[in-house]
């Protein structure tokens, strides 16, 4: 029987990128079906009265210099800290909803995560986003136009509010079999559950 996992994320989180990579590996190994739940991390932080770990200088330094590189090595995936961090991901997250509607979600996710956390692109610039999507073989203008519709904008707000109402306080957050898992460093528990 196929297991389903809901993945709440924001492209601006390096740990969400690592979780995206690892969940992809687990999906291949265990037939895991991933339901992507885009949200605005800033809105989640505000709604849950939380802040980014980067705001604590010692913790931010540890995460960027030691913890994240360790997990990238463990998962055998590339990771480069983006010099443009933090990036305003509002339009990128709206783009997730638009890409799903246009039936190109997987390619969109791969292109954006790669641009932000491997190629260190400034994805807060529309020109860069357009170039990245076009180079990935996607209809950049179609996705961008769709992402600006009132319906897509409202859906992202609704997703973010629903995440907070569900108990989400940061990214990445996963739900499987009604159990919540916060942080890419908790994916071992998901793997353990898949093995059972």
List the helices and strands and how they pair.
Layout: E1 4-9, H1 14-30, E2 33-38, H2 41-48, H3 57-75, H4 90-101, H5 105-117, H6 126-135, H7 140-147, H8 150-165, E3 173-176, E4 179-182, H9 187-195
Parallel strand pairs: 1-2
Antiparallel strand pairs: 1-3, 3-4
CATH superfamily: Glutaredoxin
| Helix residue percentage | 55-70%
Please provide the count of β strands. 4
Please give the order of strands in the largest beta sheet: 2-1-3-4
Strand percentage lies at 5-15%
Distance between the termini: 12 Å
Radius of gyration: 16 Å
Secondary-structure element series: EHEHHHHHHHEEH
CATH class: Alpha Beta
The average pLDDT score comes to 95
Structural class of the helix and strand makeup?
A: alpha+beta
Number of helices, counting only DSSP H or I runs of 4 residues or more? 9
CATH fold description: Glutaredoxin
Main pleated sheet: 4 strands, mixed
Name the shape in a single word: globular
Protein name: 2-hydroxychromene-2-carboxylate isomerase
Keywords: Isomerase
Catalytic activity: 2-hydroxychromene-2-carboxylate = (3E)-4-(2-hydroxyphenyl)-2-oxobut-3-enoate
Organism: Candidatus Seongchinamella marina
């Amino acid at each position: 029987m196929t297991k389903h996992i809901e993945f709440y994320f924001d492209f601006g989180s390096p740990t969400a990128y690592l979780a995206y990579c690892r969940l992809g590996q687990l999906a291949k190994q265990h037939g895991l079906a991933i339901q992507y739940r885009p949200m605005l991390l800033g809105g989640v932080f505000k709604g849950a009265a939380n802040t980014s770990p980067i705001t604590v200088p010692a913790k931010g330094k540890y995460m960027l210099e030691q913890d994240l590189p360790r997990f990238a090595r463990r998962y055998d995936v590339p990771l480069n800290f983006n010099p443009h961090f933090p990036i305003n991901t509002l339009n990128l997250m709206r783009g997730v909803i638009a890409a799903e509607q246009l039936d190109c979600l997987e390619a969109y996710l791969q292109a954006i995560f790669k641009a932000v956390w491997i190629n260190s692109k400034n994805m807060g610039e529309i020109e860069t986003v357009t170039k990245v999507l076009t180079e990935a073989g996607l209809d950049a203008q179609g996705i961008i136009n769709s992402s600006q519709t009132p319906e897509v904008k409202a859906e992202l707000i609704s997703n973010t509010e629903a995440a907070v109402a569900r108990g989400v306080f940061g990214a990445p957050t996963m739900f499987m079999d009604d159990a919540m898992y916060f942080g890419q460093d908790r994916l071992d528990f998901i793997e353990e559950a898949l093995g059972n």
